[in-house]
Amino acid sequence: MIKTVFLPFCCVLVLFCTGCSIPETKPKARSPISDSGVYAADISSSGDFAVISRVNSDISVWSLKENKTLFSWRHQEDGRNIVTSIHISADESFVVTADNENFALWNKQTGDPVGFWRIDESTIRDIVVSNQGRGILVGKANGNVMYFEPETGRSLEFLGHEEKVNTVDISPNGKYALTGGNDYKAYLWSTDTGQIIHVFNHANRVTKVAIDDEARFLFTSDSQDDSQIWDAQTGKAISQLHFIERQWVFTSAKFSKDGQYLLTGSPAKRLAIWDVQTGRTVKEWRVAPSDGPAPQSAVVYGIGFLENEVVSVSSSGNLEHWDFQGQ
Q1: Using one digit for the tens of pLDDT, what is the confidence trace for 98-109?
Q2: Which CATH architecture has domain 2-21+35-250?
Q3: Residues 92 and 213: beta-carbon distance below 8 Å
Q4: Where are the domains of the chain?
Q5: How far is residue 73 from each of residues 13, 69, 133, 186, measured CA to CA in Å?
Q6: How distant, in Å, are the alpha carbons of 69, 157, 203, 229, 244 from that of 226?
Q7: pTM tops 0.85
Protein backbone atom coordinates (compact mmCIF):
# COMPACT_ATOMS: atom_id res chain seq x y z
CA MET A 1 0.00 0.00 0.00
CA ILE A 2 2.82 2.41 0.79
CA LYS A 3 6.40 2.62 -0.36
CA THR A 4 9.08 3.89 2.01
CA VAL A 5 11.86 6.09 0.68
CA PHE A 6 14.30 7.95 2.93
CA LEU A 7 15.27 11.43 1.85
CA PRO A 8 18.97 12.30 1.78
CA PHE A 9 20.07 14.45 4.69
CA CYS A 10 21.41 16.98 2.18
CA CYS A 11 17.85 18.25 1.80
CA VAL A 12 17.86 21.70 3.28
CA LEU A 13 16.10 22.39 5.55
CA VAL A 14 -15.92 27.15 -3.80
CA LEU A 15 -15.18 30.72 -2.84
CA PHE A 16 -18.20 32.39 -1.29
CA CYS A 17 -18.47 36.09 -0.50
CA THR A 18 -19.42 35.52 3.15
CA GLY A 19 -16.71 37.96 4.22
CA CYS A 20 -18.11 40.89 2.23
CA SER A 21 -20.07 42.19 5.23
CA ILE A 22 -16.96 42.46 7.41
CA PRO A 23 -15.25 45.86 7.19
CA GLU A 24 -11.59 46.09 6.28
CA THR A 25 -9.51 45.46 9.39
CA LYS A 26 -5.98 46.52 10.18
CA PRO A 27 -3.67 43.94 11.77
CA LYS A 28 -1.28 44.67 14.60
CA ALA A 29 1.51 43.62 12.25
CA ARG A 30 1.80 42.22 8.73
CA SER A 31 4.78 40.40 7.14
CA PRO A 32 4.85 39.34 3.48
CA ILE A 33 6.35 35.83 3.50
CA SER A 34 5.74 34.72 -0.09
CA ASP A 35 5.51 36.94 -3.15
CA SER A 36 3.87 34.18 -5.18
CA GLY A 37 1.38 33.06 -2.53
CA VAL A 38 0.87 30.11 -0.16
CA TYR A 39 -0.53 26.61 -0.77
CA ALA A 40 -0.83 25.50 2.88
CA ALA A 41 0.29 26.50 6.37
CA ASP A 42 0.11 25.52 10.03
CA ILE A 43 1.07 27.42 13.19
CA SER A 44 2.53 25.69 16.24
CA SER A 45 0.53 25.38 19.46
CA SER A 46 2.77 27.86 21.29
CA GLY A 47 2.76 30.29 18.38
CA ASP A 48 6.56 30.19 18.19
CA PHE A 49 6.76 29.13 14.55
CA ALA A 50 4.80 28.39 11.39
CA VAL A 51 5.37 25.93 8.55
CA ILE A 52 4.41 27.37 5.18
CA SER A 53 4.20 25.82 1.70
CA ARG A 54 5.12 28.67 -0.64
CA VAL A 55 4.01 28.72 -4.28
CA ASN A 56 6.96 28.44 -6.69
CA SER A 57 9.34 28.06 -3.75
CA ASP A 58 9.84 25.72 -0.81
CA ILE A 59 8.37 24.64 2.53
CA SER A 60 9.54 27.25 5.01
CA VAL A 61 9.78 26.76 8.78
CA TRP A 62 9.33 30.37 9.87
CA SER A 63 10.16 31.75 13.33
CA LEU A 64 7.37 34.07 14.46
CA LYS A 65 9.58 35.44 17.23
CA GLU A 66 12.58 36.28 15.04
CA ASN A 67 10.64 36.77 11.79
CA LYS A 68 13.01 34.62 9.75
CA THR A 69 13.33 31.20 8.11
CA LEU A 70 14.67 28.42 10.34
CA PHE A 71 14.65 25.60 7.76
CA SER A 72 13.75 25.15 4.09
CA TRP A 73 12.37 21.79 2.97
CA ARG A 74 11.37 20.24 -0.36
CA HIS A 75 9.63 17.03 -1.39
CA GLN A 76 11.68 16.98 -4.58
CA GLU A 77 15.21 18.18 -5.16
CA ASP A 78 14.15 20.02 -8.31
CA GLY A 79 10.88 21.28 -9.68
CA ARG A 80 7.89 23.23 -8.44
CA ASN A 81 6.69 22.87 -4.86
CA ILE A 82 3.28 21.11 -4.79
CA VAL A 83 2.77 20.52 -1.04
CA THR A 84 -0.87 21.24 -0.17
CA SER A 85 -1.19 19.82 3.37
CA ILE A 86 0.88 20.63 6.47
CA HIS A 87 0.44 19.71 10.14
CA ILE A 88 2.59 20.35 13.22
CA SER A 89 2.31 17.89 16.11
CA ALA A 90 0.80 19.35 19.30
CA ASP A 91 4.14 19.01 21.13
CA GLU A 92 5.85 20.80 18.20
CA SER A 93 8.47 18.06 17.78
CA PHE A 94 7.51 16.84 14.28
CA VAL A 95 5.90 18.14 11.10
CA VAL A 96 4.15 16.20 8.36
CA THR A 97 3.80 17.54 4.80
CA ALA A 98 1.94 16.07 1.83
CA ASP A 99 1.28 16.58 -1.86
CA ASN A 100 -1.35 14.55 -3.72
CA GLU A 101 0.62 11.29 -3.69
CA ASN A 102 3.49 11.59 -1.21
CA PHE A 103 3.99 12.55 2.41
CA ALA A 104 7.08 13.31 4.46
CA LEU A 105 7.84 13.43 8.19
CA TRP A 106 10.34 16.01 9.50
CA ASN A 107 12.11 16.44 12.82
CA LYS A 108 11.45 20.05 13.88
CA GLN A 109 14.40 20.25 16.29
CA THR A 110 17.07 19.23 13.78
CA GLY A 111 15.30 20.11 10.54
CA ASP A 112 16.11 16.64 9.20
CA PRO A 113 13.72 14.41 7.22
CA VAL A 114 12.64 11.20 8.97
CA GLY A 115 11.05 9.46 6.00
CA PHE A 116 9.18 9.83 2.73
CA TRP A 117 6.25 7.65 1.68
CA ARG A 118 4.07 7.28 -1.40
CA ILE A 119 0.34 6.45 -1.62
CA ASP A 120 -0.41 4.42 -4.76
CA GLU A 121 -4.11 3.58 -4.69
CA SER A 122 -5.60 7.06 -4.11
CA THR A 123 -4.79 10.73 -3.63
CA ILE A 124 -4.15 12.42 -0.29
CA ARG A 125 -6.85 14.85 0.87
CA ASP A 126 -5.59 15.76 4.35
CA ILE A 127 -2.87 14.67 6.80
CA VAL A 128 -1.97 15.12 10.50
CA VAL A 129 0.68 13.80 12.93
CA SER A 130 0.62 12.99 16.67
CA ASN A 131 3.17 13.86 19.35
CA GLN A 132 6.75 12.64 18.79
CA GLY A 133 5.76 11.69 15.24
CA ARG A 134 4.45 8.35 16.49
CA GLY A 135 1.33 8.26 14.32
CA ILE A 136 0.32 9.80 10.99
CA LEU A 137 -3.29 9.99 9.82
CA VAL A 138 -3.94 10.22 6.08
CA GLY A 139 -7.39 11.04 4.64
CA LYS A 140 -7.81 9.79 1.06
CA ALA A 141 -10.04 10.50 -1.93
CA ASN A 142 -11.20 6.87 -2.13
CA GLY A 143 -12.98 7.21 1.24
CA ASN A 144 -10.38 5.37 3.31
CA VAL A 145 -8.32 6.78 6.17
CA MET A 146 -4.90 5.31 6.95
CA TYR A 147 -3.31 5.43 10.39
CA PHE A 148 0.43 4.76 10.09
CA GLU A 149 3.22 4.44 12.67
CA PRO A 150 6.57 5.30 11.06
CA GLU A 151 8.72 3.71 13.77
CA THR A 152 6.96 0.34 13.91
CA GLY A 153 5.55 0.23 10.37
CA ARG A 154 2.09 -0.59 11.75
CA SER A 155 -0.75 0.49 9.47
CA LEU A 156 -4.51 0.48 10.05
CA GLU A 157 -7.09 1.30 7.37
CA PHE A 158 -10.36 2.85 8.56
CA LEU A 159 -13.20 2.01 6.16
CA GLY A 160 -16.10 3.79 7.86
CA HIS A 161 -16.58 6.50 5.24
CA GLU A 162 -18.55 5.70 2.09
CA GLU A 163 -17.27 8.63 0.03
CA LYS A 164 -14.28 10.98 -0.29
CA VAL A 165 -12.60 12.03 2.96
CA ASN A 166 -12.11 15.80 3.16
CA THR A 167 -10.65 16.45 6.59
CA VAL A 168 -8.86 14.64 9.43
CA ASP A 169 -7.45 15.39 12.88
CA ILE A 170 -5.71 13.33 15.56
CA SER A 171 -5.44 13.58 19.33
CA PRO A 172 -1.97 14.58 20.59
CA ASN A 173 -1.39 11.07 22.01
CA GLY A 174 -2.35 9.52 18.67
CA LYS A 175 -5.06 7.32 20.20
CA TYR A 176 -8.09 8.99 18.59
CA ALA A 177 -8.93 10.16 15.08
CA LEU A 178 -11.66 12.54 13.93
CA THR A 179 -12.51 12.34 10.23
CA GLY A 180 -15.13 13.86 7.93
CA GLY A 181 -16.18 13.26 4.35
CA ASN A 182 -18.60 13.62 1.48
CA ASP A 183 -20.90 11.02 3.05
CA TYR A 184 -22.23 13.76 5.40
CA LYS A 185 -20.62 12.10 8.42
CA ALA A 186 -17.81 12.72 10.88
CA TYR A 187 -16.44 9.87 12.97
CA LEU A 188 -14.42 9.80 16.17
CA TRP A 189 -12.62 6.46 16.23
CA SER A 190 -9.82 4.55 17.93
CA THR A 191 -6.50 4.24 16.10
CA ASP A 192 -5.75 1.13 18.18
CA THR A 193 -8.75 -0.88 17.01
CA GLY A 194 -10.50 1.14 14.29
CA GLN A 195 -13.64 1.04 16.43
CA ILE A 196 -16.07 3.96 16.05
CA ILE A 197 -16.65 5.90 19.28
CA HIS A 198 -19.00 8.68 18.14
CA VAL A 199 -20.84 9.44 14.87
CA PHE A 200 -21.76 13.03 13.98
CA ASN A 201 -24.35 13.39 11.21
CA HIS A 202 -24.58 16.45 8.97
CA ALA A 203 -26.98 17.48 6.20
CA ASN A 204 -24.11 18.22 3.80
CA ARG A 205 -20.49 17.31 3.09
CA VAL A 206 -18.27 17.54 6.17
CA THR A 207 -15.44 19.89 5.22
CA LYS A 208 -13.62 20.61 8.50
CA VAL A 209 -12.97 18.78 11.77
CA ALA A 210 -10.76 19.60 14.77
CA ILE A 211 -9.84 17.97 18.09
CA ASP A 212 -9.06 20.06 21.15
CA ASP A 213 -5.50 19.31 22.34
CA GLU A 214 -6.79 18.86 25.91
CA ALA A 215 -9.40 16.26 24.83
CA ARG A 216 -12.34 18.43 25.92
CA PHE A 217 -13.99 19.36 22.62
CA LEU A 218 -14.51 18.32 19.01
CA PHE A 219 -15.49 20.52 16.07
CA THR A 220 -17.27 19.38 12.90
CA SER A 221 -18.50 21.60 10.09
CA ASP A 222 -20.24 20.97 6.78
CA SER A 223 -20.29 22.83 3.46
CA GLN A 224 -23.39 24.89 4.28
CA ASP A 225 -24.50 26.21 7.68
CA ASP A 226 -24.06 23.41 10.23
CA SER A 227 -20.96 23.86 12.41
CA GLN A 228 -21.02 22.18 15.82
CA ILE A 229 -18.86 21.97 18.95
CA TRP A 230 -19.20 18.65 20.79
CA ASP A 231 -18.19 17.20 24.14
CA ALA A 232 -15.33 14.85 23.27
CA GLN A 233 -16.14 12.42 26.07
CA THR A 234 -19.92 12.08 25.69
CA GLY A 235 -20.36 13.04 22.03
CA LYS A 236 -23.16 15.43 22.98
CA ALA A 237 -23.54 18.85 21.39
CA ILE A 238 -22.26 21.84 23.36
CA SER A 239 -23.06 24.60 20.87
CA GLN A 240 -23.72 25.40 17.24
CA LEU A 241 -21.90 28.32 15.64
CA HIS A 242 -24.29 31.22 15.07
CA PHE A 243 -24.08 33.07 11.76
CA ILE A 244 -26.72 34.54 9.49
CA GLU A 245 -25.07 33.69 6.18
CA ARG A 246 -26.44 30.83 4.12
CA GLN A 247 -22.97 29.32 3.85
CA TRP A 248 -19.75 29.63 5.84
CA VAL A 249 -17.00 27.16 4.98
CA PHE A 250 -13.96 26.76 7.22
CA THR A 251 -10.42 25.98 6.08
CA SER A 252 -8.81 26.02 9.54
CA ALA A 253 -9.97 25.58 13.15
CA LYS A 254 -8.17 25.58 16.51
CA PHE A 255 -9.28 25.62 20.16
CA SER A 256 -7.63 27.93 22.69
CA LYS A 257 -5.64 26.36 25.53
CA ASP A 258 -8.10 27.58 28.16
CA GLY A 259 -11.02 25.99 26.31
CA GLN A 260 -12.99 29.24 26.05
CA TYR A 261 -12.61 29.91 22.34
CA LEU A 262 -12.56 28.39 18.88
CA LEU A 263 -10.52 30.22 16.23
CA THR A 264 -11.45 29.65 12.57
CA GLY A 265 -10.27 30.72 9.13
CA SER A 266 -12.27 30.66 5.90
CA PRO A 267 -11.63 30.76 2.13
CA ALA A 268 -13.08 34.29 1.93
CA LYS A 269 -10.50 36.29 3.93
CA ARG A 270 -12.45 35.68 7.13
CA LEU A 271 -10.85 35.08 10.54
CA ALA A 272 -13.15 34.67 13.56
CA ILE A 273 -13.19 33.76 17.25
CA TRP A 274 -16.18 31.95 18.73
CA ASP A 275 -17.32 31.32 22.30
CA VAL A 276 -17.20 27.54 22.79
CA GLN A 277 -20.15 27.36 25.19
CA THR A 278 -22.56 29.61 23.26
CA GLY A 279 -21.33 29.33 19.66
CA ARG A 280 -21.52 33.11 19.29
CA THR A 281 -18.95 35.27 17.52
CA VAL A 282 -16.56 37.07 19.88
CA LYS A 283 -14.48 38.90 17.26
CA GLU A 284 -13.93 38.91 13.49
CA TRP A 285 -11.28 40.19 11.12
CA ARG A 286 -10.69 40.20 7.40
CA VAL A 287 -7.18 39.29 6.25
CA ALA A 288 -5.41 41.14 3.45
CA PRO A 289 -5.92 39.81 -0.09
CA SER A 290 -3.11 39.29 -2.56
CA ASP A 291 -2.00 42.22 -4.68
CA GLY A 292 -3.67 42.48 -8.07
CA PRO A 293 -6.87 43.55 -9.82
CA ALA A 294 -10.12 43.40 -7.86
CA PRO A 295 -11.87 41.35 -6.69
CA GLN A 296 -9.17 39.65 -4.63
CA SER A 297 -9.61 37.05 -1.92
CA ALA A 298 -7.45 35.02 0.44
CA VAL A 299 -7.81 31.55 1.96
CA VAL A 300 -6.91 31.49 5.66
CA TYR A 301 -4.76 28.35 6.10
CA GLY A 302 -2.71 28.77 9.28
CA ILE A 303 -4.11 30.14 12.56
CA GLY A 304 -2.90 30.31 16.14
CA PHE A 305 -3.32 31.88 19.56
CA LEU A 306 -0.51 33.95 21.03
CA GLU A 307 -0.49 36.04 24.21
CA ASN A 308 -3.07 38.82 23.75
CA GLU A 309 -3.25 38.23 20.00
CA VAL A 310 -3.95 35.73 17.25
CA VAL A 311 -1.91 35.11 14.12
CA SER A 312 -2.88 33.99 10.62
CA VAL A 313 -1.24 32.88 7.39
CA SER A 314 -3.26 33.16 4.20
CA SER A 315 -2.92 32.20 0.55
CA SER A 316 -2.09 35.82 -0.27
CA GLY A 317 1.36 35.23 1.23
CA ASN A 318 0.81 37.39 4.32
CA LEU A 319 1.52 36.58 7.95
CA GLU A 320 -0.69 38.81 10.12
CA HIS A 321 -0.99 39.47 13.87
CA TRP A 322 -4.32 40.60 15.37
CA ASP A 323 -5.03 42.09 18.79
CA PHE A 324 -7.21 39.92 21.01
CA GLN A 325 -7.35 40.38 24.77
CA GLY A 326 -9.90 37.67 25.51
CA GLN A 327 -12.50 38.10 28.22
Answers
A1: 999 999 999 999
A2: 7 Propeller (2.130)
A3: no
A4: 2-21+35-250
A5: 5, 11, 17, 32
A6: 38, 28, 8, 10, 11
A7: yes
